[in-house]
Protein 1
Amino acid sequence: MNKANPPHNAQPTSERSAQRVQSLAQNTLAGQQAARECAAIAADLGRLKALIAEAGDTLLASFNRVAAMAPQLSCNVSERRALDSAVGSAVTALQFQDMAAQLTGHAQRRLTVLQNCVHTMSADGTDPLLADTRLQPVKQNGMGAGSIDLF
Amino acid sequence: MQSILAVDDSASMRQMVAFTLKSAGYNVIEAADGQEALDKARGQSVNLVLTDQNMPRMDGITLVKNLRGLPGYSSTPILVLTTESSDDMKAKGKAAGATGWLVKPFDPGKLIEVIKKVIR
């Protein structure tokens, strides 16, 4: 290369270094922002989990009181049937706590992996642990009763 | 009175399962994971096992395999009650020796219907 006539697109070393520093700074800033977002999501998930647990425990305690009193109530056949049906529906609905806990737990595990990725991300790919957490067990979108298979 | 071993790491789920089974007239033995269930199964015989899949220490499918190796449990009905609904997991449960696969949330009436159909 002719020192006297450098290529048109060649940059001086100082300019290239400045761009590299700027790029690193941007990456660092982006990484810090991503880490802050992850921390905020983790805090929200923790609060959500606590709220669900508290609501679930309160509902369960109320359910137990009502369920204990139900057999002692004097009512006719149709009222008894309606009461049993309501208790049955409550049993199905109250399982939300278990499912919600599994979903939030899964989200927390994925977030931990993401946080680790933010810290250790390299140019050649993502953390293989991400693949392990892609399949989450709870596919249900509602609280209708699930399927039954007898083998 | 027929006895059912109910296994789930979620206290609220155990409570819902126990309430449903006791209301239907069954004696309920509770365990919080597969290992505890296996320990309790060794000390007594039960008429049916109802187990969750995802649990600490020992999962449901491992519990099924271990129970099938215990004397007196080769033909005991074992139902897996879980949030897992994939065909792959159901196939693993079947291969391990499970009698049936029920996806949460369960309907109390339907659960009792299934239990009455398979219990010995």
Protein 2
Amino acid sequence: MTLTFALLAGLVLGGAFAAVTCRNRVHAGLFLAACLVGLALVFLRLGAEFLGFIQILVYVGAVAVLIVFAILLTRDAESPRDRLANAPASGILIALALFALLAWAISTGKFPAAPAETAAVAPALSVKALGDRLFREYVLPLQAVGLLLTAALIGAAVIALPAPKPDPLDDSDASGPAS
Amino acid sequence: MSPLHLHLLLAAALFAIGLAGALTRRHAILVLIGIELMLNAANLNLLAFWRYGPNPEPLNGPIFALFTIAIAAAEAAVGLALIIAIHRRYRTTRVEDIRRLRG
Amino acid sequence: MDLFPRHLWLIPALPLAAAGIGSLLGPSRRRLAGMLAVAAMALAALLSLAAFAGTVTRETAGEASVAVHNFGWFEAGSLLVSIGWILDPLSAAMLLMITTVGTLIFLFSIGYMADDERAHRFFTFLSFFAAAMLGLVMANSLLLLFVCWELVGLASYLLIGFWFTRPAAAAAARKAFLTTRIGDLGLLLGMLWLYAETGTLLFFDDGRGCLESDMLAGLAGRLTASGLGVSAAISLLILCGAIGKSGQVPLHVWLPDAMEGPTPVSALIHAATMVAAGVFLMARVYPLAALDGTADVLRVALTVLTWVGAITALSGALTAVAQYDIKRILAYSTVSQLGFMMMGIGAGGPAVGMMHLLTHAGFKALLFLGAGSVIHGCHHEQDIRQLGGLRTRMRLTFATYAVGMMALSGVPLFFSGFWSKDAIVHSLEGWPGGKLPFVIALGTAALTAFYMTRQMIYVFAGPARSPGAAAAHESPPVMTGPLVMLAVATIGLSAITTPFVPWLEHFLTSSLGKGDSPGHANWGVLLLSGTISLAGIALGGWVYRRVPGGRATDRDPLGIRFPRLFDVLERRFYVDELYAATVVRWTQLAGWLAASLDRWISSALHDAAALAASAGAWLTRTLDQGVINATFDDGCEAARDSGRILSRAHDGRAQQYLRILVVGVAVLLFLLWNLQGT
């Protein structure tokens, strides 16, 4: 267990570290994708197969790609490599402090453990059961999330669309949509 | 150091890295990357507890994680759209340049 | 007889009702108002006669002669104030006198005031006065008596000033009211003191009254701080009221001026009734005044009373000698006769004084009405120098006037005045306090005869001295009728006032006490007083023998012989001038002083208030600007500054926000986990 875990942990952390320290923005996005893939493998290892695949589909396939697209769309004449960070010292310090705190909490915390007989075996997770739960007990959150996604879709489209240029020959409507 | 602990530590480290990125990077999209890392660290936490903790209610972990992924996707979409719109209007993607909303 | 004394109130209620109804009538109904007043008084007279008869019957049957009816008037906590009526020989006699004389005078007034526009008011006031006077004499409580006393004073003011458009009349009314007020103060003080001493103001109350022997026994021998007896002191205070009301010296000055009122007023109020109230009061409280000592020892209040009466009698008579106004002569004569009455009470007891009061009421009213008849007949000519010759032109008036004059002068035998005056002289002769009042009384009697003769000669004798007198005509029967009736009464009363048939004296004595009256006839005194009065008449006739046939502008013969003396007498001893220079002047000064002080104080207060207000305003402004504004402005400044400083954290830099957020969360988590001991 530990070997695979260590390797996957290395991938995840390495990818993350690279993502936040890379000067090349596009590379940073790609490193993010690598990190997310590593995370998906961890999910698989944990027994949440469905979630692992969803992670790859959605996060890696949609979000990471979207990020790369956005990086490309917002490219200026300036060089793709720029200075690394704003006041890196205090930011890193804060992050380290938080990590120290969390680590301390984890190591000293007493987590309720599963009974020994079930610890070795991952709990069953079937897609059918998941779907069942989703559409019965969690139907309301499901619908809410659907609404949210719809709103996000429409909103993102509206925000990202360029404003239509006013027609120079058209004097009748004095105020066009705000540009 | 039970597997739970290991996974939690991993999630904490991931979270810290993501935080560091969100706090220090200059480009807005790179800050967003840090935020995505943080969200994923949270997801990892959820699934670790699902796997290694007592489960009076099975399937809570994955369902929660699922919703998180969905919402994170929506957020990433809207956020990126905003960054694009800002870039179009203000010709900049630097975080410290965008501070008209101040008190 | 069962009616009285419980329903004694009916007697004053009748004229009061007439006054009330009369006040609603207008000038066009003045004849009706007059007849209403006369009818009310006549009815009251009938009731008084019944009461009087009842009292007489009781008297002869030997029962108690005093009948009272008391009731509670008001309560204030534990204090119960009672009033009541009393029916005894004194009040019965007074009731009868007032109502009968009043009826006749009211009747006379119908004719006298026939031409006056405001006659309806006149009868209202007259009835009101009659009601108050009747209430006064039948009061069993000094409090009720005082209330009626003041009401009588008010009525007198209204009647004297009836022709108020004349300044002299208005001034006379004021003078009367104020002068009697001074005396009333003494009466009030005496009343309060008596109440404090005895706890009651009822005269007779089953042994508890303040004039009854138990109460008096308690007062006897008590002395004030100055050594004066308490009862004497109270009596002297009450005497002050009597002096004011009855026109004794020194408060006599209002009476002659009161002649400004219509003649019926003078007849009723200033001859028969109101001025008699003072004498009546002294007779009523005689048991109190006679308290300290026996008949041999001088009693202070009575001694003072006698001397006051003597001085008044003499000065009144002297002044009357030199007056030219027909009514003024009679006014000063009244003053003098009131002095006689006071002397009578002081030296001879209440019965003696009251007897003269009753007879005097009769013939003085007769004289005043006769004067009124003369004035009316001569078209309001009042100066006797302008008159004359009325003997032939106004025969009935002359005849009745002569009867009155003879009664007043004390012509012996048939005229009641002689008998009552003689009783007084008799008492004075034996008075232990000195012989001087006796001499004064005799001298005054002589003077009385003298000046009345003078007046008769001037008015009636010889030819007329002016066109007004020449055109005189007799008055209508409504006016001469009462004259005749009063003349008859004057003669008739003599029957019961002689010492040979001392019915009246005994009647009055039964409730009032014997006093010091000798009670029996003294031939020497009788002869002396008879001679004196005839001598006076003879002297008057001789001195003024040339007046008939003279001219109106001729000087008085006495004035020619003794010019300076005559002037002093004519100017009434300059008493009015003396008062004006002293009392009036001092009062005005005090008023001016008070006004200046008031102005000064009020302006000082005003300035102080203004100063306080401006100081307050300054303080408010300082506080407002300096304190409130400053703190507020500074506070706002501080808020702005702090806001400016704090807003530096809100500079729009999202990453900064995030950092701070994370730090905060970390601290929070740390604290939470520590506290919980995770």
